[in-house]
Amino acid sequence: MTRKIVVLNPKGGSGKTTVATNLAAYYASAGFRTVLVDYDPQASSSRWLRKRASHLSVIHGIAAFEKNPRVTRSFLMRLPPGTERVVVDTPAAVAAQDMPELVRDADAVLVPVLPSDIDIHAASKCIADLLLVAKIKRREHRIGVIANRARRNTLALTTLLRFLGTLDIPIVTTLRDSHNYLRAAEQGHGVHEMKSYIARDDVATWQPLLDWLEKRFANGEAASATGLEAAG
């Protein structure tokens, strides 16, 4: 079954591409047929894909930002047969009215946030738009926040945690401020594909996010089964 994960935050520099590329690399290396969709005209995810070495697990890329009059939109956006994981990297400055299209059919929406006052304010508006404009219901538990480049036991992180607690939106993990992400971006791989002794601490911070996503997928399957039984 295909599972779609959208990484979204209109605030630039929040770490959307870092999350999207590392998530795609994890799923591909774990044996899932993975697609990385790049909506950002800056094409950061697409450049990362082009840097991937041939011996690494294959990730199919879709440059959704491209406009080619000779190719239909549906043809450009088609998924390869057997696709199991779709990771969507969205651009900065996404307008609220564009969010419903971006998150349509998403099993999970991840919002990376830096621990600063400006970023917390931007995240607040982003989450409000997801709830009010994109019509994602809280009870669906599809929205998860990632505290990005955070340093533990700091006032900035404490402020972020307190703010998110008021929204009743879970922080699914806290990613370290680590040079390994820069190396991964430069070389077209993810931290899960690095030597374990180099990236062990970073890999550990991804496990809560991966567990949360698997729980989301399992809940989605259960909901689908319930719906089919009710229809029958």
Give a brief description:
The chain has 232 residues and is α/β, with parallel strands linked by helices. Helices cover 45% and strands 17% of the residues.
Total tally of structural domains: 1
Strand order of the largest sheet: 3-2-4-1-5-6-7
So, the CATH homologous superfamily?
P-loop containing nucleotide triphosphate hydrolases
Strand element count: 7
CATH topology: Rossmann fold
Distance linking N and C termini? 21 Å
Just give the CATH class: Alpha Beta
* Protein structure class: alpha/beta
Poorly predicted regions are 224-229
What does this structure look like?
The radius of gyration is 17 Å and the shape is globular. It has eight helices and seven strands; from the N terminus they run βαβαβαβαβαβαβαα. It is α/β, with parallel strands linked by helices and 232 residues long. Helix 6 links the parallel strand 6 (143-150) and strand 7 (171-176). It has helices at residues 16-29, 44-51, 73-76, 99-103, 117-132, 155-167, 180-187, 196-231; strands spanning 3-7, 34-38, 59-63, 85-89, 108-113, 143-150, 171-176. Helices cover 45% and strands 17% of the residues.
Topology record:
Layout (H helix, E strand, L loop, with lengths): L2 E5 L8 H14 L4 E5 L5 H8 L7 E5 L9 H4 L8 E5 L9 H5 L4 E6 L3 H16 L10 E8 L4 H13 L3 E6 L3 H8 L8 H36 L1
Parallel strand pairs: 1-4, 1-5, 2-3, 2-4, 5-6, 6-7
